[in-house]
């Protein structure tokens, strides 16, 4: 792993690193032989740097942690899951762009801003 901000998680550390984490966690279920997983790795490194202190990025090797992957319903990799206080917020399968992942993370970090933007009627101004 090229970025020390990305944490390798195992069955033994999942509860502490993900379930017990105080904030938002982005978990990558991956395998070393998976081409798309290798493609998403540098994106996650960049995300870990950009969101340092706001989002914890963890990786779970599905070859080594089959039971953990099975418990979380991982059927294809890469599977990215977003957790807060141990609760699954969302999952996505396949390679996503850094812009897509940043937008998702921003939505979880600042839901009021996202919700307000989505609910404002277009073309109406306050007087």
Main attributes of the structure:
Glutaredoxin; 127 residues; alpha/beta; 5-stranded mixed beta sheet; disordered C terminus
Structure characterization notes:
By secondary structure, the protein is α/β, with parallel strands linked by helices. It has one domain (6-109): Glutaredoxin (3-Layer(aba) Sandwich). It has helices at residues 14-19, 35-50, 66-71, 98-109, 111-119; strands at 6-8, 24-30, 55-61, 79-84, 87-93. The protein has a 5-stranded mixed sheet. Mean pLDDT is 88; it is low at 114-127.
Number of domains: 1
Q: CATH topology, which one?
A: Glutaredoxin
How does the helix and strand content classify structurally? Answer: alpha/beta
**Morphology call:** globular
Main beta sheet strand tally, sense and closure: 5 strands, mixed
Task: Quote the beta fraction.
Answer: 15-25%
Q: Can you tell me the residue ranges where pLDDT is under 50 for at least 5 consecutive residues?
A: 114-127
Query: Count the strands?
Result: 5
Name of the level-1 CATH class = Alpha Beta
Termini separation: 54 Å
Q: Would you list the SSEs in sequence order as H and E?
A: EHEHEHEEHH
Query: Tally the helices: what do you get?
Result: 5
């Amino acid at each position: 792993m090229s970025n020390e901000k990305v944490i390798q998680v195992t069955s033994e550390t999942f509860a502490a690193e993900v379930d017990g984490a105080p904030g938002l966690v982005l978990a990558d279920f991956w395998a070393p032989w998976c081409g798309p997983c290798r493609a998403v790795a540098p994106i996650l490194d960049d995300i870990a740097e950009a969101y340092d202190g706001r989002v914890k990025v963890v990786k779970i090797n599905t070859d080594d942690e089959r039971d953990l992957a099975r418990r979380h319903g991982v059927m294809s990799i890469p599977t990215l899951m977003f957790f807060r206080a141990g609760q699954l917020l969302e999952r996505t399968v396949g390679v996503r762009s850094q812009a897509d992942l940043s937008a998702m993370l921003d939505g979880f970090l600042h839901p009021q801003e996202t919700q307000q933007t989505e609910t404002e009627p277009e073309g109406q101004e306050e007087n």
